[in-house]
Design a protein that fits this description.
Radius of gyration: 22 Å
CATH class of the largest domain: Alpha Beta
Mean pLDDT: 85
Number of domains: 3
CATH architecture of the largest domain: 3-Layer(aba) Sandwich
CATH superfamily of the largest domain: Periplasmic binding protein-like II
């Protein structure tokens, strides 16, 4: 009798990423006692200790790491199979997930969302936010059906197709109270190394994390999202590159100061990206609609109109 289930692997994965039973319970919408029971039952069935407990924190044992490494491949395969079956059976996907890079907001696509529901009210629409390599990974692993604003080049190995959206330009910005705001000449590496940089955490779970605009040995404050990075730089606790449309209003209001740097960050190419060979009706609808939408102009208009970035 098989003692290992996909649900137990799902629980292990959530615990490993969250670092505790409580975090896994929150992610899986369960009570912590059911998570503890599932782990205890699995360890008993396999006669193997999978986690080392240290107060509320838990870590995988060597055996647990080996099991989860293979188990994640099974979870990925099961997710892909479910997705394929639903797509074949219904034509219109039962659920369609769009991953947005942090600069983009679902509210920017409000017209498209309303139009989509007019023709596909049986499809559940889901938006997520990803950062750096996270969007590419979500796409390749099947957690997202479409990525809007996928940055840079995708991972090796292919399995996806891309269409250009445009280029995103960056400015190096600090609060007026920050020491770098008082330096009038272009900032060099030595200037930057003396001060903390604020970066955004890569949301990838499996791919190597990507870092942008960081110097070796530089003190780094890692924020969970682009809006958090923006707010931390407004507060003067660090410096860093910000997307120019994102920072434009704060610069005009004197809340941020732009400083020229000797090594500026080059523009980032942004894309629409989807998996190769996908033929779902929802994907076809969104690709056709977004091809006719100038996302970069819409992004610029959103912030030029005085709308500040927000969490809503």
């Amino acid at each position: 009798m098989l003692k290992l289930s996909l649900d137990s692997l799902l629980v292990m994965d959530a615990i490993d990423r969250g670092g505790s039973f409580a975090a896994a319970a929150k992610e899986l919408f369960r009570v912590p006692s059911t998570i503890s029971y599932a782990v205890a039952r699995l360890e008993e069935d396999l006669a193997v200790e999978l986690f080392v407990r240290s107060g509320p924190r838990v870590e995988l044992t060597e055996a647990g790491r080996a099991l989860l490494a293979e188990g994640r491949e099974l979870l990925l395969a099961a997710h892909r199979l479910e997705h394929k079956v639903r797509r074949v059976a219904r034509g219109w996907e039962g659920e369609f997930t769009i991953a947005l890079e942090g600069l983009f907001s679902p509210a920017m696509l409000a017209d498209e969302i309303r139009a989509f529901y007019d023709v596909a009210d049986s499809t559940r629409l889901r938006f997520t936010h990803e950062a750096l390599s996270g969007g590419w990974e979500a796409l390749v692993d099947g957690r997202a059906d479409l990525v809007v604003g996928a940055a840079g080049d995708g991972p090796a190995g292919g399995g996806y197709v891309v269409e250009p959206v445009g280029q995103l330009h960056f400015v190096f910005a600090v609060a007026p109270s920050h020491p770098l705001a008082r330096i009038e000449r272009p900032l060099n590496r030595e200037d930057l190394l003396r001060h903390r940089i604020v970066s955004v955490a890569d949301s990838a779970r499996r791919l190597p994390p990507r870092t942008v605009g960081l110097l070796m040995g530089q003190d780094t404050l890692t924020a969970p999202s682009l809006i958090d990075k923006f707010e931390l730089q407004l507060a003067g606790v660090g410096a860093g590159f910000l997307p120019e449309p994102w920072a434009r209003s704060a610069i005009a209001d004197g809340l941020l100061v732009v400083r020229e740097v000797v090594e500026p960050r080059p523009p980032e190419r942004l894309h629409l990206a989807c998996r190769s060979g996908e033929q779902g009706a929802a994907l076809a609808w969104w690709l056709q609609r977004l091809r006719a939408t100038d996302l970069m102009s819409r992004l610029a208009a959103r912030f030029t109109s005085g709308v500040m970035p927000s969490r809503t």
